[in-house]
């Protein structure tokens, strides 16, 4: 029959496996935790949007493309401003994720995720429709010169393909991506709530 | 001191204790090694966030504990394995020290998730103040919990010893 002190002696005398030398290469390799995944996804999205602006500007003003209508220039500025603002917002969201400190005790860690979740939910509510509206306003104006003088069949095909893609992106693809993100966030929060529950006073 | 040098120093100083903590959580040497590695990845990545408000040991143990707890929540693992039965079958006089230690890890892994963390820190002789800081619970609550967990662990261990 062992009392707790005997158990403690046993624990303190134990030498679990041999101490391996630290593997710096393995340590510095990126870990695959949820926070890193979310951060990378947002960072990548923000960068892609920024380069989209660069590409559109190059295409419009430095390539051989010749679009001369005043309204087309307005359209390009609407698209560029919308995408650039979205890029900044996405990078800011990535920054918010990077601030989450998983080295804090579970209660504070949970609070950080809850704050981020509330922020993100609020952001999506206004950001998604606004982005969709302005992007399509710009694209609509841009198409005016592009389709000018083209056969009616070409115009209808372009409208059908473009609208089809936009509706798919907004209602299916966008929702799917956001649902995945929400699932990840809720997963983290549920884990932390479970831990928090256990740590509460009994 | 360069970050790499400081990290190596921290690793050499705390890896053994963290490995035991992970073993207490999982009862599985391979998994414990993975969790140890994952914990030190987080230490490396977050070293610039360390403000010195707590001791390095508190900070590192907290990271390791969070890593182990999150892992367990994800896997929702119930520890059942053949080793347990095998160990229980070994008569007392044949059970050497190493087997007793293995049995202890397995007994700890039978406790509730957060109880494993608390008892591991108690076994490591961490002061109550530091344990409270790592777990984020008050010292008064902690004393009550520790008393209960000690009793529970002794009972589990002795129940295996009797087999």
Radius of gyration of chain A: 26 Å
- pLDDT averaged residue by residue of chain A: 85
End-to-end distance of chain A: 28 Å
Mean pLDDT figure of chain B? 80
Q: Roughly what fraction of the amino acids of chain B lie in strands?
A: under 5%
Low-pLDDT segments, ≥5 res of chain A: none
Output the number of helix runs of chain B. 8
Q: Return the structural class of chain B.
A: mainly alpha
Helix content of chain A: over 70%
The shape of chain A is elongated
What topology emerges from the helices and strands here?
The complex is a heterodimer of chains A (202) and B (163).
Chain A: H1 4-13, H2 24-28, H3 34-61, H4 70-98, H5 106-147, H6 152-199
Helix pairs in contact in A: 3-4, 4-5, 5-6
Chain B: H1 3-26, H2 29-46, H3 56-75, H4 82-89, H5 97-108, H6 113-123, H7 128-135, H8 139-162
Which terms summarize this structure?
heterodimer; A: 202 residues; mainly alpha; 6 helices; B: 163 residues; 8 helices; 77% helix; 0% strand; globular
Protein described:
The complex is a heterodimer of chains A (202) and B (163). Chain A has six helices and no strands. With 202 residues, chain A is mostly helical. Chain A is elongated, with a radius of gyration of 26 Å. Chain A starts with a helix and ends with a helix. Helices cover 77% and strands 0% of the residues of chain B. The longest helix of chain B is centred in the first third of the chain and has 24 residues. Chain B is globular. About 4% of the residues of chain B have low confidence. Classes of the chains: A mainly alpha (202), B mainly alpha (163). At the A-B interface, α1, α2, α5 and α6 of A face α1, α2, α3, α5 and α6 of B.
What is the gist of this entry?
The complex is a heterodimer of chains A (202) and B (163). Chain A has 202 residues and is mainly alpha-helical.
């Amino acid at each position: 029959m062992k009392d707790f002190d005997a158990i403690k002696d046993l624990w303190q005398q134990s030498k679990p496996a041999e101490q391996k030398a630290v593997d710096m290469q393995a340590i510095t390799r990126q870990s695959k935790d949820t926070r890193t995944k979310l951060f990378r996804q947002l960072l990548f999205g923000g960068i892609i949007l920024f380069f989209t602006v660069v590409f559109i500007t190059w295409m419009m003003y430095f390539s051989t493309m010749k679009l001369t209508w005043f309204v087309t220039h307005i359209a390009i500025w609407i698209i560029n401003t919308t995408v650039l603002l979205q890029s900044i917002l996405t990078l800011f969201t990535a920054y918010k994720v990077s601030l989450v400190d998983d080295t804090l005790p579970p209660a504070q860690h949970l609070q950080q995720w809850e704050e981020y979740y509330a922020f993100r939910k609020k952001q999506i509510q206004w950001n998604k429709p606004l982005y969709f509206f302005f992007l399509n306003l710009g694209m609509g104006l841009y198409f005016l010169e592009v389709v000018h003088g083209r056969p009616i069949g070409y115009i209808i095909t372009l409208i059908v393909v473009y609208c089809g893609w936009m509706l798919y992106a907004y209602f299916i693809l966008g929702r799917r991506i956001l649902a995945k993100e929400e699932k990840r966030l809720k997963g983290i929060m549920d884990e932390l709530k479970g831990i928090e529950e256990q740590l509460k006073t009994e | 001191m360069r970050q790499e040098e400081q990290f190596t120093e921290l690793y050499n100083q705390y890896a053994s204790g963290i490995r035991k903590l992970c073993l207490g959580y999982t009862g599985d040497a391979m998994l414990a090694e993975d969790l140890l590695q994952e914990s030190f990845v987080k230490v490396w990545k977050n070293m610039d966030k360390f403000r010195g408000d707590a001791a390095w040991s508190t900070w590192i143990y907290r990271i390791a504990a969070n890593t182990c707890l999150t892992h367990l929540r994800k896997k929702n693992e119930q520890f059942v394995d053949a080793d347990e039965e095998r160990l229980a079958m070994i008569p007392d006089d044949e059970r050497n020290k190493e087997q007793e230690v293995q049995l202890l890890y397995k007994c700890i892994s039978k406790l509730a998730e957060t109880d494993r963390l608390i008892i591991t820190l108690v076994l490591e002789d961490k002061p109550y103040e530091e344990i409270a800081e790592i777990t984020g619970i008050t010292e008064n609550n902690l004393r009550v919990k520790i008393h209960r967990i000690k009793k529970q662990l002794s009972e589990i261990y002795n129940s295996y010893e009797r087999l």
